[in-house]
Amino acid sequence: MPVPRPPAGATRRRPRGRRAASALPLLLPLLPLLGTAPAPAADGPGWSAAPEPGAAGGTPRPAFYLAGAPGAVLEDRLALTNASDLPRTFALRGAEEPGGAGGAGAWISFGGAAAVTVPPRTRAAVPFTVTVPPAALPGDRRAAVLAAEAGREEAVRVHLRVGGPTLAALTVEDVAVRGRGARTEVAYTLVNRGNVPLAPRVSVRAEGLFGPLPGRPERALPVQVPPGGRLRLAEPWPSAPRLGAADLTLTATAPGAAPAAATASARFAPGVAVPGPGALLALGAAAAAAAAFARRRRARRGPPAAVPGGGAGPEPAPEPAGARA
User: Fold this and answer.
1) Which residue stretches belong to region Disordered (predicted)?
2) CB-based burial of residue 299 (10 Å sphere; 0-12 exposed, 13-18 middle, 19+ buried)?
3) What CATH number is given for 12-162 in this structure?
4) Maximum Cα–Cα distance for the chain, whole Å?
């Protein structure tokens, strides 16, 4: 009798407090591959891992998409296909996806099916659960389900949305000017203080002693800041002045978040940018120290010798021609 399955992409939940299924039921739904599959190449992997296709038409899914409120226990199935002529034993676990945050990888559990042996030419549908902590903040999380066998590991993405009110909040911190000439850049830190991922855009505005200076127009960054994430970045500023002073304002925006801005100042001398409002005082102090050093050197030499009677004295008379022997 066929096992009833939910429609494609459906999220299965079970009430909290219900005990996890034992390892034996997790290993029962083994589905023989239809037809006679060709033998894999000698150097091919011979197996694959993917979300179990939905029952309606067997539509494949590129990743797991789950949603639930804090405290929910969500369920889905991982399909392991062994197309080889030998049984294969897989180690299964949850993990953080690179760039993810929030610890969602630790919420994934295979229970007693953390190690599964799949017979030759067979597909096994292995259940797993995602337990959302009661104190989890609303927002999106990214994790992965990992299947490993004989030194090879394959990851299947898990997109998880925790229900509740969402907050998009972005701040800019630690703005500083560094480098010189065409390699001058504006360094800064973006901090996601909300509970949803943010795709930021940044711009740089500069003001000099006599008016606006060329800055940087707004542009989209090729990065995403995860909830609670902190990224240290830099914007090139090749049009920075070679001499003088500049006040900069770096502004960051993201969909749903209020604009965030932070400022910095820099004083430019030939060949170097000196950050901070006290840079002119530092340059003045250096000049004063050089002048004091010159005065001390003159003092050590002493005053010129004085001629008795005052004055410089008469110049010596020229000798008559032929006076020398």
Assistant:
1) 293-325
2) exposed
3) 2.60.40.10
4) 142
**CA–CA dist 178, 19 (Å, integer):** 58
Kindly report, residue by residue over 93-121, the tens digit of the pLDDT. 999 876 555 689 999 999 888 899 999 99
**What digits encode the pLDDT tens for the residues 130-172?**
999 998 888 888 899 999 998 999 999 999 999 988 889 999 9
How far apart, in whole angstroms, are the C-alpha atoms of residue 131 and residue 128?
10
Q: Check whether 85 has a pLDDT greater than 70.
A: yes
Q: What are the distances in angstroms from CA 165 to CA 69, 73, 193, 268, 286?
A: 11, 19, 14, 47, 56
Tokens found for residue 304: 């010129």
For domain 170-275, give the fold: Immunoglobulin-like (2.60.40)
The whole-model pTM stands at: 0.52
